[in-house]
Amino acid sequence: MDAVIQALQSFFTWPAPLFSFLGILLGLLFGFIPGLGGSQAIALLIPLSYSMEPGQAIAMMVGAMGATPFGGSISAILINTPGTAQNAATCFDGFPLTKQGRAGYALGASASSSILGALFGVAVLAILIPLGKPVVLAFSYPEFCMMALMGISIIAIVSLGSIWKALVAGIFGLLLSSMGYEPVAGSIRFVFGVSYLYDGIKIVPALIGLFAITESLKMMIDGQQLTNKHSKFENVGVGVWDGIKEPFKHFWLFLRCSIIGVIIGIIPGVGGSVSNFVAYGHAVQTTKNNPHFGEGDVRGVIAPQASDTAKDGGALVPTLLFGIPGSVETAVLLGALILHGLQPGPKMLLTNPELVYVMVLALVASNVIAGLIGLLCAGSLSRLTMLPVRLIAPVVIVLALIGAYATQGIWGDVIIAIVFGVIGYFMEKCGFSRVPVIIALVLGKMAQQTFFQTLMTFGAAGFFLRPISLIMFIITLMAILSPFLKKIRKSKEAVIK
Amino acid sequence: MKHFKTSNWVELAFIAIGVVFFVESMGYNPMARLIPQILSVLLIIFVLLIFLVELVPAVRKKLGFLVLEKGVFTSNDLEKAEEESAPPAAEQKKGEIMLIPLILWLLAFAFGIRYIDYVIVVPVWVFLFVKIQSRRSWLNAVALAIGTGAFNYILFDLILQSSF
Asked: DSSP label at A85?
């Protein structure tokens, strides 16, 4: 209870509300502009948060994260272009509603299902956090080491695209994390004569590069207009109130889709691009009363939006309990927390429980405020999408690189951001997921440190004699061997047939 | 044997990184080299498999399941949407060529903020970038340069008082 009171004090003490509001505005804008998203917004906010108190920084970054899904739904509904990947399914019925002149109705339904979905996700998060404490107390060096390895291998298994390529990305990230000071003996490794690398690859410029710079390069190269110049944004303010009431009329659908969002959020590394399709598919399959999906059925807006925002609360569960991010946004957030001297995962629950509740408050506030702002400004925001991407990209590049430089005033950070931007571009283009690289960079040092600490404290048997560590080892092994296991199973099935 | 694609060059780059890390780590003490050596060997083997599966049909037939196995949440809808939005091969090639000047622009910005003050570099760079690279009007270039320059100055100098 003390932690909750401290969190309330921290969240409502000036200037935290201002920073939270600014984060929400940026998240709404980045969610709304196709090509940008929550991860880019957080990456850009990291340098700005450097001089802030941890509570203020968290309020700002979680505010940005929470506002993105609703921001993305505005462009999905009004211009048939999802602002982020997690709003793709919202287009299916949102845009047909706009074409029928019922944009305000669709936006109202999107806003209220987003707010309610977020509240549901946050409630689950608030319930699970105290329950996680006994699990956390059972952790020692072997569990931390196995947790890091398990996190990377599971993210490969559940990620989009090739598992093998995601594993390669994870190993590459781990290798990069071994640059600089070796954490146990202090030897210097892989600096190649560059003094900047003595501290290893810093997470912030790497994050900025992999997300903000990579996306800007893609924008410049693809160069497509975000929306048609002749788009009309009419009737945006009509029918909003009717739309707001819709999730209550379809409460069970809303609830089921929120549960889907929370579950997918909890699974590390999956995130909204999956949850909105799953929730939409569920709505299509289970709706019996006169469905008109694809032609402007409001249930096709409620389902993906509820799951999108509910997943944010779910995604914070593994992030806060185990330090394993549940989504791309939480992966970036994890890096930001480390910059503020916080170790997300078990330690944070014990040492800074109030900050965990600040996240909960910030997530609720961001969804409510983003919903209100979005409804008020939807019409004007829509005109922003007519801006050519080749005008947006240079602004993002400048903000990203100056942000990387401002973090510590080290010029090498700018170069690292550029290098990682180019690496990210090629990885993206060739089907290598960027998320495992970031997670490995975040968890890599801890994995190596705890590996040797386990050997020195428990011996190699320490990994296998402690039950939690052993279970994690088995899961990791199964994750890596899963393609082989599937192949064997398929061969057996073929023989039986 | 198929022709080399961009992805094959990327895979070769990964293998080269693995080799460099392995060779470099040989000079370290046993504790410092153990994990990097394991990781670099794993990286080389994993990427080599991808490389061979993509280029050699016989290997693809035998081991293709390894590389082609998708994550459990890779749905057909998503894959289809990605395929539809992917540019054709000719445009991809053009994209790679376009990347070179973009990298030079980024490096110019980086060196600019190192050797000249960022307050000058930001508006000048934005102006030149928008005019030359984005090929927009003078008005667009001037407006964006002034706007971005002023925003950065207010944010980093006046509000955050960053010392760089």
From this structure: G
Cβ within 8 Å of B, A 244-273: 264, 267, 270, 273
**Which of A157, A168, A266, A425 should be substituted to probe chain B, the one whose Cβ sees the most B Cβ atoms within 10 Å?**
A168
Q: How far is CA A250 from the centre of its chain?
A: 28
Altogether, the residues listed in chain A come to a count of 497
Q: Does A489 touch chain B (CB under 8 A)?
A: no
For the stretch B69-78, pLDDT in tens is 666 555 555 4
CA atoms within 13 A on the CB side of A342: 27
Token representation of residue A29: 């804008």
Report the share of chain A in percent with pLDDT over 70. 87
* DSSP state, residue A323: S
CB contact under 8 A, A391 and B81: no
Q: Give me the phi and psi of B70, to 5 degrees please.
A: -95, 155
Of A341, A273, A393, A1, the closest CA to residue B85 belongs to A273
Spell out the residues 6+ positions from residue A234 whose beta carbon is closer than 8 angstroms to its own. Answer: A101, A103
pTM, entire model: 0.73
A180: helix, strand or coil: strand
The token duo for A142 is: 């072997």
pLDDT in tens, A15-62: 888 888 888 988 888 887 765 677 778 887 887 777 788 888 888 888
Across the interface, whether the CB atoms of A175 and B17 are under 8 A apart is answered yes
Contacts of B114 in chain A (CB under 8 A): 411, 414
| A429 to B98: CB separation less than 8 angstroms, yes or no | no
